[in-house]
Design brief:
homodimer, about 240 residues, alpha/beta, Rossmann fold, 2 domains, 6-stranded parallel beta sheet, 10 strands, about 20% strand, elongated
Chain lengths: ~240, ~240
């Protein structure tokens, strides 16, 4: 690998910018492709460039053939992050599901009795107020947040902080009635309906979830849908996992 | 607890029959309520009987008040079981999600190189043929099965065995094309469209899942939906987890 490419990859990693490194496995030639830099990689064959952009969008490295040559498309993506406000019952399975799905997880709960290391072994915990933690965190398109406390004093400041950011998913636990009151408070504080429309509430896909683990599954399914599909609401629930055969 | 009630509870446990034990916390009086025995528990106040049946359906013990008295409704349910045919990439996160959601999991794969203890620590593994394992297992309304190998020699006999049973969920990995061929083979072998209509294929809720962990989430969400909701297909994807506040 040439020095300038290595330097760029390191810079991209530090600035959390997704990049695809396209390597011709025959000649060893390498090119970088970015989703947010349309001109980049234009010396590549059109079909190969398109496949590199797909790999970037899918967040998945792959080997492809083009015009008799073989290319390794290696995707380097910043980590996925999930902030969970509230160290409640649902939080315990949700942390484990999210870890398995590749998320770095931070649990924030200013109530020290809830967020302690015994209940959440090995999890990054904070007893600060969520708006303090979130205010100094990177809230980008690889970040999701859920608020689970039902307590406006804790959930609302967190929501107000993340509504100003680019996070790809915001979800809040609470019935339709609770969520309606929450929206009214946010509108009083100057947020538009377009802004608050980003909040998934009541949280989670409608799969009839009852136990904390099932609610955690419905939340992870909704986060996945928000990350992978264009429409944030309204999956039709029919199967889609075709696999390769 | 009176001897006859204890005997019944033990019999119910052995025969895997769900039962709710309703105890008057004042008088100590106890009554058993069954979902599949409409006449049972009719000496209870109507509202209390209804709450006991809801607790049974929700598989969740609870304390309720009725007419100034307090009752403990204790639900005894047989374990939830998940059989996974195929020790593939998706199987690893799926096993962990299912354990967290309270399922006993068995992974079946006659290909010994796939199903080994190193890849699945602490999981019940079988290298027998799935129809042999399933044929001698209890396949009841608390049992789900997924087939993930894409290999008709392995998946089909498993499906033929479970289609004759009461399992609450059957799902098969594979594209629409693969699934169409699978259905054609099953119909050739004498299964009706009504029978094969129970198979969720392509497997999983349509949440755009790509990685093995995401596909496992979509499968667990679909299993939860099948267990908890009347309609096996077609959740509308809107939020539902209201919580209590």
């Amino acid at each position: 690998m040439k020095r300038d490419i290595l330097d760029r990859l390191n810079t991209d990693r530090e600035s959390k910018r997704p990049v695809a490194l396209v390597s011709d496995t025959g000649s060893g030639g390498q090119t970088l492709v970015y989703a947010d830099a349309p001109g980049c990689g234009e010396d590549l064959p059109e079909e190969l460039l398109s496949q590199a952009r797909t790999a970037l969008a899918d967040d998945r490295s792959t080997i492809v053939e083009d015009d008799g040559k073989q290319y390794f498309i290696q995707v380097q993506s910043p980590p996925l992050r999930l902030f969970i406000v509230g160290a409640v019952h649902i939080t315990q399975p949700l942390v484990q599901f999210a870890h398995l799905a590749g998320y770095s997880v931070t649990v924030i709960d200013p109530r020290r009795a809830f967020a302690d290391d015994d209940r959440f072994p090995g999890v990054e915990l904070s007893n600060e107020w969520p708006d303090d933690v979130l205010g100094r965190s990177t809230l980008d398109r690889r970040t999701a947040i859920v608020t689970l406390t039902h307590d406006p004093k804790i959930d609302d400041p967190a929501l107000e902080t993340v509504l100003a950011s680019d996070v790809f998913y915001i979800g809040s636990l609470g019935s339709n009635r609770t969520h309606g009151k929450r929206l009214a408070r946010l509108h009083e504080n100057g947020f538009s309906e377009q802004q608050t429309g980003r909040i998934h509430g009541p949280i989670g896909l409608n799969i009839g979830a009852k136990s904390p683990a099932e609610i955690a599954i419905s939340i992870m399914a909704e986060i996945t849908q928000a990350r992978r599909m264009a429409t944030p609401h309204g999956a039709d629930g029919t199967g889609s996992n075709g696999g390769s055969a």
